[in-house]
Design brief:
Aminopeptidase; 4-stranded antiparallel beta sheet; 2 domains; Alpha-Beta Plaits; 37% helix; alpha+beta; homodimer; 457 residues
Chain lengths: 457, 457
């Protein structure tokens, strides 16, 4: 084994660099890079500019690439053209963070013991910084690799500019393999790596029947009610209680999990009790652990995120609103085709309520990854080295649009080394990350680079 | 006929007092007395205090009565204990006024030619001030009547304190008859007086399944979705397209309109085209004029005003919200009993989704008025005198909670002399009132008081 990659040495590195790590994470978490909010465009850019200067201060070459939307940041620890290249993918944009459920200010970095609170701490700024610290360690110890960083700023809006941008700069971004660090373990007790991601197809259903609010006394009964019509439409699309999608053909291309996959799921440490606790759910649609896993990882969904329009305040304001919008998305699994789902949904809605205008947003197919071969083995080994247990290969319910683009454009295999935990509150208020995952993650990345260096040597 | 009550004289009075009238209306419209908004409590009180000083400046005795909620204002032009008393009911609280659809500031009084814009101009501050000017004229010409003003400040929230307050002060408020000026004509072409009002029963349906927003990628499929469940529930309660209520027993006590009533409706000047234009509707549930009138005046409804909770912003934010609230109300007609409807709705919801918490708000039974006898004849005559045509007696789709309370407590018959027009935008953005209705209304009230004086003399 290359010198300096022993557990003790890596633990010492993490201890020594902890305050530097926290300083860097604080700085980047406190820039509110909410990619979905147009008024935050400047903050997203400021995040990218800070990331470039950060990479440079770590001794990397770094560059900001313009896209049609938010920029992309690329950094490189270059060893030389004859060495293999590994690229770490993270994203530095974050989800919106409004509402009263935050106990601390979402864009203020708050440390409480070993826990770090703030929007983006676990998704995905904390893991990005963890990988950077792990990579610097490996570089300083001379691993025979080029280590690249590909940091996106449009992940939370479905990566609309990513594929075009990496295609236009495919030479700069060329790599032998990619490791994505933006996924969640099943439980703290055991590392987990996804071997597949659900896709996503978003929709907005808009119905306009008037121009302004009207009084339900003077017009109610004859007037159309766009909220009631959208409720009926949603109820026609999905069984609200079971989640079963009622649109004919919706499940036609779903590949059910194999027997082997089901066996792996049973071993992954998932418990319904923990799942409920981590997500603060009062009850679930189903109660059996395997059934829950099948539903969140291997089955598609039709989810309504909200109904905009209409009265939202206290008491009862007896208006008939002029329009309403249902905000909806479907999670997709192999082999569902987003374009086919858009077609199915549009024609179903047209049949049920022709006045409803459907706009499709966020197309992302599902992704099926690999769990065998040297790269997968290196991840397995690095996780075991850092966290004491081999990871289980499961699936991930969420979507990372960039994954498919990287496979397609860079033509190199993509693997996952995620560090987030269920209790970190992914996309939720009081999002957090913790020092155990950060310090373990640094060791895991350093060891992963060592393995890749030895593998290719 | 008593001197000074000729058409010319009353037209002259209106012309002479126009700027005074506009000044008073401006002053009261610019106090944002939104009774449903707790933070406006002070403004509602300020309105009541202004109303007292206004009545006093008109030579009336006036008093502010405290209630458990917003105050009540009572004013009196006293002729003496041996004269009959007529009470004019209006309300001085208003609907909320938010949103981008207002072309002028809602709480700024804007005059454009003969039209007055601002929240409350037509509902009901404009008619209240009109009645006051008409009453002052009659008083100054010595009509042998006591004229009282009963101005409520909780009408828009269903008059929760009104009945208790008038019961506690029944001696002060004693009256021989009440005339309510808070209703809308069918069209400008012909005055209309309601001979019945729909009742109202409000509800909030709340479903909580978690504590905070969750990511639909990590939890979607197994997690319950409270918005989807409420959509399903709404769709079970009502046919969104036709408006047909599906709750068994809902229509059991509905008294259908008589043949005579249907004949009157056919003559009232209602056209679907005007109704659509006045309310800016793109389409309606039905297309026949009589069918529209039946639905808005003689049939009950189940209306969803909005679904609170969930994502409301731009794009698609893929959350599963922790809770959602459907804001709902039913318009009621004779002989429906609000308590029975609450029972029906609660037990239906409990059967369909036992986790949904139903809270009932705004109970108001429907009201059936009289169209014959001397008081109705006086209204008929006064309307014809002021506007050139006898009014049709129709129904009103809206609810005025105070009407039933006054009949019950004051034990005196209630009639209607409304001045609002469909194009005034009742409860809608760009609410307005106009000088034709104000000046005609002053004449109608003055003439009404003359007739009452002669009738009792």
């Amino acid at each position: 084994m290359a010198t300096g990659f022993e557990r003790d040495a890596l633990e010492g590195y993490a201890r020594e660099k902890r305050s530097e790590y926290e300083g860097v994470l604080k700085k980047i978490v406190e820039i509110p890079s909410v990619s979905v909010e147009p008024e935050r465009k400047g903050e997203v850019r400021r995040t990218a500019e800070y990331a470039v200067s950060l990479l440079e201060s770590f001794g990397a070459k770094a560059k900001l690439y313009e896209t049609k939307g938010h920029p992309i940041v690329h950094g490189r620890f270059e060893r030389g053209p004859n060495y293999p290249t590994v690229t770490i993918y993270n994203h530095l944009d974050v989800q919106p963070a409004e509402g009263d459920d935050w106990k601390t200010k979402p864009f203020e970095f708050v440390r409480e013991g070993d826990r770090y609170f703030g929007r983006g701490t676990t998704d995905d700024k904390g893991p990005a910084m963890t990988a950077l610290f792990g990579a610097r360690y490996a570089k300083e110890r001379g691993v025979p690799l080029n280590i690249h960083f590909l940091w996106e700023l449009e992940e939370e809006i479905g990566s609309p500019s990513f594929e075009t941008a990496i295609r236009a700069n495919a030479e700069d971004f060329a790599t032998d393999t990619v490791v994505v660090s933006d996924t969640v373990w099943v439980s703290r007790a055991r590392p987990a790596c996804p071997a597949g991601l659900r896709g996503l197809q978003g929709f907005r259903f808009e119905l306009q029947t008037g121009e302004t609010d009207q009084h339900s006394g003077t017009a109610g009964g004859a007037a159309r009610n766009p909220v009631a019509e959208l409720c009926a439409l949603i109820a026609e699309c999905v069984d609200g209680k079971t989640g079963r999608v009622k649109i004919p053909g919706f499940y036609a291309d779903v590949v059910p999990p194999t027997k082997k996959e089901l066996e792996d799921l049973k071993k992954c440490g998932f418990t319904v009790k923990e799942f409920k606790k981590d997500h603060l759910f009062r009850s679930l649609r189903v109660h059996d652990a395997l059934e829950v896993m099948k539903r969140i990882w291997t089955m598609p969904t039709f989810e309504v995120h909200g109904i905009a329009g209409g009265y939202q305040g206290p008491g009862v304001k007896t208006i008939i609103p002029p329009k309403a919008t249902a905000i909806v998305s479907c999670r997709l699994v192999p082999d569902m085709d987003p374009k086919k789902i858009v077609k199915l949904v549009k024609s179903f809605v047209k049949k049920k309520n022709p006045d409803v205008v459907v706009s499709a947003e966020h197309e992302l197919p599902a992704y099926q990854g690999k769990t065998t071969g040297p790269y997968a083995d290196a991840i397995r080994g690095a996780m075991k080295f850092a966290f004491g247990k081999e990871p289980v290969f499961v699936r991930e319910g969420g979507s990372i649009g960039a994954v498919l683009s990287m496979e397609r454009v860079l033509k190199s295999p993509v693997y996952f080394l995620g560090l987030s935990l269920p209790e970190h509150g992914y996309h939720a208020p009081n999002e957090n990350y913790d020092w155990m995952q950060a310090s373990g993650g640094m060791a895991a990345f350093a060891d992963y680079f060592r393995r890749l260096g030895e593998m290719k040597a």
